[in-house]
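Chapter review. Work through the record for Methyltransferase type 11 before attempting the end-of-chapter questions.
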Amino acid sequence: MSGRSGKRPAARGPLALIPAALALLAAGYALRARRRPAACPYRYRLAVSLPRPFLTRGRLRRALSPSPGERLLEVGPGTGYYALHAARWVAPGGTLHVLDLQQQMLDHTTRAAAAENLGNIIPARGDAQSLPYPEGHFDAAYLVATLGEIPDQDRALRELRRVLRPGGRLVVGELLPDPHMVPLATLRARAAAAGLRYEGRLGTRLGYYARFSVPEEI
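Structure tokens for Methyltransferase type 11:
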């Protein structure tokens, strides 16, 4: 019998440094992403189309509580992962407005909607920091893994409050490992400063939906 254990020796040399180098690159990207928030480029559209186990469509529906006939707003629809379902939640008679900085994302969503015979999605190119809608225009709004990409989150939350009617709902979804993730405590503080009332959370620290509302007029 040989005295060797049969185990291969640990990898040495330049190849052994690859995992550490990749980890450093990922950490560097995450740090830069936090310092310089920016929308996910269209070339990464496959990533925003992947399933999201912590931020499911079913949980979004529970948090948002949409009803037929309502007017909804989604900021940052990407390729329509949530939009195609939300449009059905408010049918018949309701509409879903989708706003994105990138025309390519809007075009992708509208093509997907047309392929599924959905005619109640209304796209608009614009900035969440200056929403192109009148005051009190929407019954509810939502954005998922998007708030952290906006340079001035406080301004965006004030704008969302402005375009929601009294009693209107806002749902914000955040998840790891998104480098732009906004912690719940930070989100609650910013939302309160914008005049939004916190109503609860679905999910965990790994991924959550937080629901807010606009106080009713007295």
